[in-house]
Amino acid sequence: MTDSSRSQTAAASEYFSSNRESFLEQLFALLAQRSVSTTGEGIPECAELVRTLLEKAGLRASTIATDGAPMVIGEYERPGNRFTLLLYGHYDVQPADEPEWQSDPFAPTVRDGRIYARGASDNKGQFYAHIAAIASLLAADAHIPVNVTVLLEGEEETGSPNIDSFLQSQRERLAADLVLIADGPGHPSGRPVAVFGARGLVYLEVSLRNAETDQHSGTYGGVTPNPAVALSRLISNLIGTDRTVNAPGFYDRVRAPSRSEVELARAIPFSAAGFRRTIGVRALEPSISDNLEYWRRIMFEPNLNVSGIASGYTRTGMKSVIPSKAVLKLDARLVPDQDPTEIAELLASEIRRLEPEATVNYLARMTPYRIEPSDHATTAVLASLARAWQSEPLVYPSLGGSLPAAGFLTALEAKPIVLSYGHHDQNNHGPNENLRLDHFELGVHSTLEIIAALAELDRNAQN
User: In sequence order, which residues have a C-beta less than 8 Å from that of residue 252 and are 6 or more positions away?
Assistant: First the structure.
């Protein structure tokens, strides 16, 4: 890295450190703003707040309407800059109605060096690290050495139904050389993580109604069919005891991992005992005997999961009823080259074959992708992470979860790299979601290092 790049990065880092409390105040205001995409609560207000934060950082900011939540764009362009970096994140969050929260999920609280709030790690805290880095660069040196576009959406937690069409419609405006996404959990070792893929998603809701109201189980038991029992049978027929998904065609298009992807997965440490401690499960599947088997299932295999089932009486005490209705939530995680639309249709077809009276609704779909980490920009990003964290990054071939990142490949022809500025026990989607303060700060410094490295890469390419 040149002396001028080091100087600019150091000045921006010093500015951030000197103004850390001010940046945290802005982050806390963002976390306090409800933005639950499942219900729509606070989404327009949060979009406007995000736009304001981008403007405060020094970007040209705007909101663009979609058929759902607004997209928020921040832009910086400077004559002479050729490389364009696109930073993606999402301002919507999951519901926070779990009784186990130890503090108000929308009143950010710091305990033992962690920020506790819904969205602290998924994804407001992580994408705000990008914004804080940009603001620090512009405040310290009045310019950024690459062009930057920030794209923040408000529907990621409901499957990003509008992002693919939005990317297509805004291809020229959003054109970029590289996409960075700060999201997901870190590794228990504390080493930085860079991810080069994500599993896809199909989310289905299955409902079955047998009567207008619940019925007395003594008076009508053995006469009136029970929809909860019917959907339980449906689950056991769909998902085998060996986890196999029993829907014809489900595995037809599964892409096997490459040799290099297998070796990357094999190199990622895994502790079964540590895993059980962190998430509180009593046991793993018996056949998971080593780290490669664990990561193979997370990264390279599709599966079908029961996210929820609701029926009948489940409150305190007893009430003897035959439920009138049962509802089942299913999510399928997909791998390349499975097509979400095709998988949704074949699952729905098998569900209707097994239970003809069931109603099936599609709630979300995301496309899986994996890319090889093998170009100069990737090398620059990994080296930057190593400098910021003082530790060699772990390279993940794929997330186990899903992100709407495949559209960046298809619509913009830009490679997306996912960086985790979080930690392994941040408890995304659960009660007491949190973000370690030191990881937030490492995220800011990582973004500063990456921008400097990409600018230098661009200068070398021009010479």
Answer: none
Is the bond preceding 123 in cis, omega lying within 30 degrees of 0? yes
Task: Flag residues of the chain having pLDDT under 50.
Answer: none
How many whole angstroms from its chain centre is CA 21?
A: 27
**Residue 169: which of 60, 54, 50, 64 has the closest Cα?**
64
Pick the closest to residue 26 from 52, 48, 44, 47 (CA basis): 52
How many Å apart are CA 220 and CA 212, to the nearest integer?
Answer: 14
Q: What is the token pair recorded at 188?
A: 């228990």
> Helix, strand, or coil here: 250?
coil
Phi, psi of 420 (to 5 degrees): -95, 115
Residue-level pLDDT at 253: 97
Cα angle 14-15-17, degrees, rounded to a multiple of 5: 65
E-only strand ranges, 319-358: 321-322, 325-334
Q: Which tens digits make up the pLDDT trace of 310-359?
A: 999 999 999 999 999 999 999 999 999 999 999 999 999 999 999 999 99
Strand partners, 99: none
Contacts of 92 (CB under 8 A, 6+ apart): 35, 36, 37, 43, 46, 69, 153, 154, 155, 156, 157, 158
Q: What is the dihedral of CA 257, 262, 268, 271, to 10 degrees?
A: 90
CA distance 42 to 33: 7
Amino acid code (one letter) for 327: V
Task: Give the three-state DSSP class for 344.
Answer: helix
Q: How far is CA 393 from CA 26, 258, 378, in A?
A: 29, 20, 12
Nearest to 17 by CA among 389, 437, 420: 437
Residue 423 neighbours by CB distance under 10 Å: 21
The rounded distance, in Å, linking the Cα atoms of 352 and 350 is: 5
- Provide CB contacts within 8 A for 164, sequence distance 6+: 404, 407, 410, 411
Q: Go through 203-218 and write b for each residue having 16 or more CB atoms within 10 A of its CB, e for each that does not.
A: bbebbbebeeebbebe
Instruction: Determine the Cα–Cα distance for residues 414 and 402; give it in Å rounded to an integer.
Output: 18
Asked whether 138 and 80 are in contact (CB, 8 A), the reply is no
Would you state the pLDDT for residue 278?
65
d(CA 337, CA 197): 12
**What radius of gyration do the chain's Cα atoms show?**
23
- Residue 293 · residue 287 · CB < 8 Å: yes
